[in-house]
Amino acid sequence: MLLRVLLFIPLLIFSVCVAADPIQLDRGWEFRWGDSPVGSDGVPEWTRGDSAAAWTPIAFPSNPPDRHGAENIWYRTTLPEGQWRDPVLYISSVDLIVDVYVDGRRIYGFGHFDENGKGRFEGWPWHMITLPPESTGKPIYFRIFSDYIDIGLWGEVKVMERGELLGKILRDSTEGAVVGVFSLIVALLALAFSCIQGKRRMFVAIALYALGAASMVISASPATQLMLNAPLLWDYIGALGYFVMPVAMALLMETWFGSGTGHLYRWISRFFVAYILVAMAASLGGLVGLALTYPVFDLLFAAALVLLFVPAVRGLSMLSREQLAILCTYVLFAVLLLIDMGVAHGFLPWGKVPLAWGSLAFSCAVVVIALVHFSRSQAELRALNMSLDQQVKARTAELERLSYEDPLTGLKNRRFFNELIARESARARRQGYPLSMLICDIDHFKQFNDTHGHEAGDEVLRQLALRMKQTFRQTDLACRYGGEEFVVTMPGAGQEDALMRAEELRRDIAATALRYAGKSLPRITISVGVASWPGSVASVDELFNRADKALYRAKSKGRDRVEGADFEINRALKSASD
Fold first, then answer.
1. What is the pLDDT of residue 248?
2. pLDDT band at 139 (very low <50, low <70, confident <90, very high)
3. Residue 534: exposure state from Cβ atoms within 10 A (0-12, 13-18, ≥19)
4. From CA 121, how far away is CA 142, in angstroms rounded?
5. Which site from 44, 236, 424, 470 is most exposed, i.e. has the minimal number of CB atoms within 10 Å?
6. Integer Cα distance of 32 and 577 in angstroms
């Protein structure tokens, strides 16, 4: 198909260089209702140059007066003189089928006339009619059948060089092709946004509108006939795109102005969906021609445009700038469609209506809004990612804190102690400073819990943790090792300092009056085992085991006491007490 277009380019360049000026056939037209009888030689009698009295002058060969339901008509005019190399007659469109005669010879035909001079709709293509040599200055006749509301030629009728006509077709198609492709891209973008954005119904409506506009513009582009000479197929594509317009408009209006008038928009969209189904089925089934579905639709669409936009005017203050932009392009396209209807049905003089520009304005508005939405979404996504990152970091820190902290007492837990002692032991060996360790255990704690309950026992554990925080230095670290057992690590503390702190804690706990739930609790006591490096242990790695053994001795000697890792320390502690 593309190759066919490319093959026209050399011919186009050559013809333009030597072409005579195009001549518009806008005068000398005549018409005659009915169909010509055919002579024995097969030549229509009306092409033999009979009396001019049977023909009636007309300014342009379209919709003469006094039709009265007639479906057959003949038109004629005289071909202009000129120095042509490869002349053709260009006609924008014909309603509906046509045979063309010069010198009694049929030189062109579109559609098929049956034996009764009737036919059926075959599409609305443009026509390039090759003119025979020496045809200039001679009459040319047009035999036409139409059961449509219009009958005759439509648009431009001019004689020109073939190459110049092909150049005109390509030039006239550029705008529609660009806008059509652009509208298709918009439709795809809108569908993509419908999958990732919350306002799915709105984006589906935009996609449907853009797809319909693209179908209309592309099918109306003259170059499509060069790529694929199937005018009826292109007309079906254009009709489907045109007929879907009110559906898309109603869907979009419903998303914006649905409150109070949503039932109206739903009714309009469903009505036109039903019309599309019925019209297409009837046309494809041969019940009516596709052309006959247009007048009814045009009337319904014009009424629907009023129903669609009147409620919108009352809700303008509620619209965002993006919605206003789309609504304005909607109105622009709707006005152009109404003008095109007026031209098509003869209410307005013929002229090219820039539907492609209306579609382009809508498509550009959607693209700009899509880019704004995308930029805004990316900014929100970056902010969300930063927020999530901060939340993850905060949560990680919280989880890390919880993984090292005892929830009851607020002290560090056994996991933290295991990591801490390895780190502090290595540092003590490396830097040569002393390191002491205390292991504390509440005396008869199981019996206390059995007597006063676990909640009272939890209060005892919290009070012990509080006293430990008050007794030891900021550099010391107290941990709940498990149950009623606590461990205190004292970096930089020697034997004597560790023993004194342990004894201070023991005395403080023994003197503390405990209360829970408004009731006094019996006093508790603790037993403490102490080990220090260097001094009571040969290796820093033996601190925990030696402190644990010292605690066992304190328990076995009656509890409520502090025991060091060797007897020399205990004797020193006893002397200090005395």
1. 86
2. very high
3. middle
4. 17
5. 470
6. 140
Q: CA quadruple 348, 352, 357, 362: dihedral positive or negative?
A: positive
Amino acid sitting at position 472: F
What is the distance, to the nearest Å, from the Cα of residue 424 to the centroid of all Cα atoms in its chain? 58
Distance CA 26, CA 159 (A): 11
Q: How many CB atoms lie within 10 A of CB 236?
A: 18
- DSSP assignment letter at 47: G
Which range has the worst mean pLDDT, 88-102, 156-170, 174-188?
174-188
- Paired with 20 in beta bridges are none
pLDDT digits (tens, 9 = 90+) for 303-336: 888 887 776 666 666 667 766 776 777 778 778 7
Instruction: Please provide residue 312's backbone torsions phi and psi, each rounded to the nearest 5 degrees.
Output: -65, -35
Amino acid (one-letter) located at 14: F
Handedness of CA 285, 286, 287, 288 (dihedral sign): positive
The C-alpha torsion from 279 through 283 and 289 to 291, rounded to 10°, is 50
For residue 183, how many C-alpha atoms fall within 13 Å in the half-sphere facing its CB? 27
Structure tokens at 94: 């014909």
How much is the pLDDT for 333?
73
Hey, what domains does the chain have and what are their CATH numbers?
2-166 (2.60.120.260), 172-379 (1.20.1070), 414-577 (3.30.70.270)
Q: How far apart are CA 576 and CA 558, in angstroms?
A: 20
DSSP label at residue 22: P
CA atoms within 13 A on the CB side of 419: 7
pLDDT at 196 over 80: no
Cis peptide before 87 (omega within 30 of 0): no
Distance (Å, whole) CA 260 – CA 128: 54
Average pLDDT of span 500-519: 88
Backbone angles phi, psi at 128, to 5 degrees: -120, 105
Q: Are strands 435-442 and 87-95 parallel, antiparallel or unpaired?
A: unpaired
How many CB atoms neighbour CB 15 within 10 A?
20
Read off the tokens for 477: 């670290």
Burial class of 322 by CB neighbour count within 10 A (0 to 12, 13 to 18, 19+): middle
Instruction: Tally DSSP H helices, then E strands, for the chain.
Output: 15, 17
Residue 439 contacts residue 481 (beta carbons within 8 Å) = yes
505 Cβ partners below 8 Å, 6+ apart? 440, 467, 468, 471, 472, 526, 528
DSSP bridge pairs for 562: 528
For range 457-462, the mean pLDDT: 88
Nearest to 72 by CA among 96, 38, 49: 96
**Pairwise pLDDT comparison (458 vs 202), residue with the higher score:** 458
Can you read off the two tokens belonging to residue 180? 């059509």
For residue 381, name the pLDDT band (cuts at 50, 70, 90).
confident
For residue 258, the model assigns a pLDDT of: 61
The pairing of beta strand 514-516 with beta strand 519-521 = antiparallel
Contact present, 86 and 161 (Cβ < 8 Å): yes
51 has pLDDT over 80 = no
- Residues with Cβ within 8 Å of 261's Cβ and at least 6 positions away in sequence, in order, are 311
Q: Which range has the worst mean pLDDT, 383-392, 480-489, 556-565?
A: 383-392
DSSP secondary structure, 32-44, as one string: EES---B-TTS-B
